[in-house]
Design brief:
Layout (H helix, E strand, L loop, with lengths): L5 E2 L5 E2 L6 E2 L5 E2 L9 E14 L17 E17 L2 E11 L13 E2 L6 E13 L2 E8 L21 E8 L5 E11 L6 E2 L4 E2 L6 E8 L5 E11 L8 E12 L3 E12 L6 E12 L2 E10 L27 H5 L8 E12 L2 E12 L7 E11 L4 E10 L6 E11 L1
Parallel strand pairs: 8-13
Antiparallel strand pairs: 1-4, 2-3, 5-6, 5-25, 6-7, 7-9, 9-10, 10-11, 11-12, 12-14, 12-15, 15-16, 16-17, 17-18, 18-19, 19-20, 20-21, 21-22, 22-23, 23-24, 24-25
């Protein structure tokens, strides 16, 4: 804040009275304080390119970097928030826009996301009101949902922009070391390859889905999270209710972090409910961060998913510890009837971070049983607000080998 000091002109007047000089004191005016605005504006620009040689990510089949086998998008996101517009009521809005920059004429044949299938377009990704009373906060409208507190309806950020949800979110922290979260989710868009991000479909046949989560940190170094989802008539059969129970334990043991997860997806209309359990251990060996994860999902009708209108497809990934890059882009649901092991190692080198991932899955949908995956990702900060990432993904999930390359640049402002 600039401070302006106004000085009056000091005039020295000689008064012929005994030879004394009487100075005139300078007059100082203090400026009025400048009001601080509650408005905050931010945004990001994204350039996203992906190519694979087996058609696993939605483009045509061809060699890496062929036009027929490549997808791309350029995106611009603008965000405005105000924590107190009037009487404690806050406001947030976000606008996402996509364009191909003409790359479809010579470099790519498909897109990463779309607005109703158009090469150029935009949608309102967030539009909400907030209000707080003591230790309780309310957020109503279109918004992002975090994976840590909403494991079966969360926003994925692996693509150009994240998917969002229409609903009401209530958070309370009155209990010591405890966060209680209640939500009702009415509509959502789907994040996936070439997905129409402007289409927000009704969840549970316009009845919405209810969610309750409790997270507790009363015991030192231990975080316990439990969630329950409920949707009536979810699988299109009257009188059959959907219930999802999910739990997660995270413990910091000093030398290592330990995670255990598990739960069930139950619906009277399903022949086989989904049961899943998993474990993870991670730590640091010198300068290398390492982790080992395992998940088991039984043979079931739905497998692991995100809650949505089409039997739960609002995203491409799941809450499982073993989700990898292949879960993001592959059109089939790989998290079903499977045992999956994932080993990860990463270190800060070469002016950025280099991470390698090896995954082995035993089971899965027909034609994709028993496959291997290897991911190599390098990310770095080029300038203060400019970051870039390059990823290579190998798998034998289809007949023959599949190779995928992804290049992403993001500029935040």
């Amino acid at each position: 804040m600039k401070k302006t000091l106004l000085l009056s002109i000091v005039a020295s007047t000689m008064i012929m009275a005994g030879g004394d000089i009487a100075p005139v004191e300078p007059a100082v005016s203090v400026p009025a304080p400048v009001a601080v605005s509650n408005w905050k504006f931010s945004g990001q620009g994204v350039v996203y390119y992906q190519t694979d040689d087996a058609g696993i990510s939605g483009a045509g089949i061809g060699d890496l970097f062929d036009q027929a086998a490549s997808s791309a998008d350029a995106g611009l996101q603008l965000t405005a928030t105000n924590s107190d517009v009037f009487a404690g009521i806050g406001f947030g809005a976000q606008l996402d826009g996509l364009a191909t920059l003409g790359l479809e004429h010579y470099l790519v044949s498909n897109i990463m996301q779309s607005d109703a299938g158009n090469l150029t377009g935009g949608w309102i990704s967030q539009l909400y009101l907030t209000y707080g009373m003591g230790n309780t906060s309310l957020k109503a409208g279109r918004q992002e949902l975090p994976k840590s507190l909403s494991p079966f309806a969360y926003s994925e950020n692996w693509n150009v922009f994240a998917n969002t949800f229409d609903g009401v979110l209530l958070v309370n922290t009155d209990l010591p070391d405890t966060v209680l979260v209640g939500a009702w989710v009415d509509r959502a868009n789907r994040n996936g390859m070439a997905a129409d991000m402007s289409y927000f479909s009704d969840l549970n046949h316009d009845n919405g889905v209810w969610m309750l989560t409790a997270q507790n940190k009363s015991i030192a170094d231990l975080t316990l999270t439990g969630s329950w989802y409920y949707g009536n008539d979810f699988v299109a059969t009257p009188g059959n209710d959907l219930n999802i129970l999910w739990g997660d334990l995270q413990y910091n043991a000093g030398m290592a972090n330990i995670g255990i997860q598990g739960g069930a997806v139950m619906d009277d209309a399903l022949t086989d409910d989904t049961n899943a359990v998993g474990a993870m251990i991670s730590g640091k060996l010198d300068v290398v961060n390492v982790s080992l994860a395992y998940d088991h999902v039984n043979a079931s009708d739905l497998g692991m998913f995100q809650v949505g209108s089409l039997h739960g497809l609002t995203g491409s990934t799941s809450v499982l510890y073993t989700d990898t890059a292949l879960n993001q882009v592959f059109p089939a649901n790989l998290s079903k009837d499977m045992d999956k092991f994932v080993v990860t190692a990463g270190a800060d080198v070469l002016g950025g971070n280099l991470t390698g991932v090896y995954a082995y899955e035993n089971g899965g949908p027909v034609l994709y049983n028993d496959f291997n995956e290897f991911d190599l990702v390098y990310s770095t900060t080029l300038l203060d607000n400019l970051s870039a990432a390059v990823a290579y993904v190998y798998s034998d999930v289809v007949a023959g080998d599949a190779n995928l390359v992804r290049v992403v640049a993001r500029y935040n402002f």
